[in-house]
Amino acid sequence: MDKMDYKKLANLLLPDVKRTAEYYENLYPKRELKEGAMVTRYAPSPTGFQHLGGVFAALIAERMAHQSGGVFYLRIEDTDRKREVEGGDEEIINALNTYDIYFDEGLTMEGTERGNYGPYKQSQREDIYKAYVKYMIEKGNAYPCFCKEDEMELSRAEQEALKVRKGYYGKWATCRNMSFDEVQDRIAKGQNFIIRLKSPGNWDNKIILDDLIKGRVELSENDQDIVILKSDGLPTYHFAHAVDDHLMGTTHVTRGVEWLPSASIHIQLFKLLGFDLPRFAHISPILKMDGNSKRKLSKRKDPEIAFSYYNQLGYPKESVIEYLLCIINSNFEEWRRENPSESYREFIVRFDKISPGGSLFDTNKLNDISKNVIAYMSAAEIYELYLKWAIQYDNEMAELLVKDREYAIRFFSIDKNIPKPRKDFVCWMDVKEGIGYYYDELFYKRVKEGYDFTSRIIKRDIIVILQEYLKIYNPNDDKTMWFERIRNMAEGFGYAKDMKAFKRNPENFKGNVADISTIIRIAITNRANSPDLYEIMNIIGSNRTIERIENAIIYLQEKGA
Ligand code: GLU
């Protein structure tokens, strides 16, 4: 076919496509960016399952754009209508909003859009893609394919038998050299067609991709006449990627490593369309240790892969983000130690520090980070966030919290404003266990199942010690006096009042003052470990303190101490 015929062919195949590629080139002018500013995107498909890998990839893209003074946008890739799930768009936006991963452009929760390069949902860009498909046909770089599914299957079976590469290429690309007349004839007969790329590539040639994460990658040139426009009028991922990332001005394509093998198709498409090539950064999946080997986080085996898992357990968003940054760039941890109070947004994420083989997920690390994040929150912040979580996941707790905000703030404030605040909670799910004793409802419910008097002191002694404590307890004591009384009482029972003396000659004592405090602590909180006991007693008040000690005594007596 000569040039004229290609034009004719394009009009025959896409008669309704009036707007040209040039029109769209003018409609979406090049972005004005300062030197070094990156334009990145998160381009998920609305398949309904938001996973940690998505948040991971979105965070990398967002950080790269914003730390360089560029633009980060969200594009919904819904050209595969079969995989689409109702509400999928909202779930994606919700995941980004939950973690404060701000996108400058894209679809919003309200169903509107922000940004000048939209629509940001591929299914609404049909006309745009078709203009570029038409351009490809006019240039002789694309053609119609009338092959039916059974013909394709036959061809696949033959390729299998001959043990040759599968696909639509070379002699297998049977529609590639169809004459204009034949195309016209088939169309007149009402035959359906799709549009394929007429690949100029040679499989034996190698191309080099300098990937920003994977490094230098050698790929075979593409020779497959891949589909660019499907029978439903929508493009394939490959074609949409080229058109969108070009028109939307993406400078850096960050995406899953599963796209790396097809990068040779993309490079070819960009060239044929006359587009500048963006830089590529292919992200490997998050891995997990399984025995001695690493494997991909799996949807089936690992609940922590689901984005919802972190919400359900109540990990603060900062914990998840800080943790992800840790596995994105391992030097984040050191930076965080040196800059404990800076926003994570001050940390510079680097492509060359992302593990090319895949970052390793480690729950213990996440929990350590989260403990730290919560420890440095103010009591009021803990209250608000915990309440918000409880409203959704723990009604009983939410009701107790709402009843008396000040009360909760008081106990969340214990040991707060000190250089090393207590690290009590990993996530909101943990909190109830740690604060239940402040509420009689929860305390007595648990006590019914028994007290945790596990200390080496025999029960009879515990009763006597608690009875004695009731006699000497004075709610008006300051902390020094309060402790002095406990120490003196310890001494009276033959326990060391002073730890140094105890350590020197433990054989001289039945135990030490800590054993005595633990007994009182367990009677009041039913826990061997708690924040400052003096503060707890003050917060719950003397009546409840006495009541609880009495209750413990009765319990022990009934249990036949
Ligand atoms: N929609 C593609 C996916 O979800 C995105 C690939 C890309 O970021 O280009 O895998």
CATH architectural name of the largest domain: 3-Layer(aba) Sandwich
Question: Strand content of the residues, in percent?
Answer: 5-15%
The amount of helix comes to 40-55%
Main pleated sheet: 3 strands, antiparallel
Uncertain parts: none
What distance separates the N and C termini? 102 Å
Strand order of the largest sheet: 5-6-9
* Secondary-structure class: mainly alpha
The first-level CATH class name of the largest domain: Alpha Beta
How many β strands by DSSP?
16
CATH fold field value of the largest domain: Rossmann fold
The total number of structural domains is 5
Bound molecules: glutamic acid
Task: Provide the residue-averaged pLDDT.
Answer: 95
- Give the full name of the CATH homologous superfamily of the largest domain: HUPs
Determine Rg (CA atoms, Å): 33 Å
